[in-house]
Amino acid sequence: MAARRMMESDIGFAVDLIRAERWGHTRIDLARMLSLSPGGSYVWEDCRKPCGFITSMRYERTAMIGHLLVSSDSRGRQVGKGLVAALLEDVDASGVRSTMLYATEEGSRLYRQFGFEDSGYELIAVGILLKDSERRALRTTCSNAREGDVAEIAARDRMAFGDDRSELMARLLLEFPEHCFKLERSGHLAGYVLGRRTPIGFDIGPWYCDTGRWEDGAALLDSVLSSFPCGGRIDISPFASNRLVPRIIARHHKYRRAERVKLMIRGDMRYSSGSDDVLGVAGFELG
To answer: How much is the pTM?
Structure first.
């Protein structure tokens, strides 16, 4: 039994495990991660048969652990622990100063064995369900973000996240320009939201606004929601401590909240500026 680096040919196996757990990530999501962070994810093999995998994204000095899944017939054999150990050995050797992940209460016990600590932040999953009539009533009051906006968006994202994610920002803008919006105040960028299509619906994030006004955050959300065609679930992941998001989302009457997950960190803190300006993160697997 051994860990090896994840390859594109492993995506089918990984997607099967994800579907078995009823998670929402797809082949497209995994392919994007492998493209942006080649060599950052691992598969565990037993007699040349894959039985588990772990993914990560690398942003300069920061690693973001996303998926950790083990096949049902291999659980209880320390596969998950072996995958985490293999990934962290690589992370430590590369000079990464902060490794982050979102964990359930059950999963956090494993990560504490490797030096992860609770950051004090929790994330919640919010799903918006819009009727056709509600969608038609939305107003697009923000401008579409363009390729030329990447540098400014990435600079603001770095202030919020704590490291450079310009390649991720550029990739999302390139893939989904029709779902990316910006908010300007006095000629300067005050907020942005990056939306994307998935095979099962739509994801929103990162969603950022530094004006402190819920109306500005709502303008960004309404703009991206109005860009989505009808049908499919719409997922957002805000920090539980954010004081603006509940008021913004309460205007959309049908929504659900999933289980809260903890942001755990090994090494330097990220999101050091606080979570009030971060209305929605890029995703559990992207940070």
So the answer is: 0.91
Q: So what's the pLDDT on residue 253?
A: 54
d(CA 215, CA 172): 25
What residue spans in the chain does CATH classification 3.40.630.30 cover? Answer: 2-96, 126-280
Please provide the CATH number assigned to the domain covering 126-280. Answer: 3.40.630.30
Strand pairing class (201-209; 233-236): parallel
In this predicted structure, the answer to whether residue 96 has a pLDDT above a threshold of 80 is: yes
CATH class of the region 2-96: alpha beta
Provide mean pLDDT across the span 119-140: 84
What pLDDT digit, counting tens, does each position of 75-87 carry? Answer: 878 999 999 999 9
For residue 256, what pLDDT is reported? 61
Tokens 């590369």 locate to 94
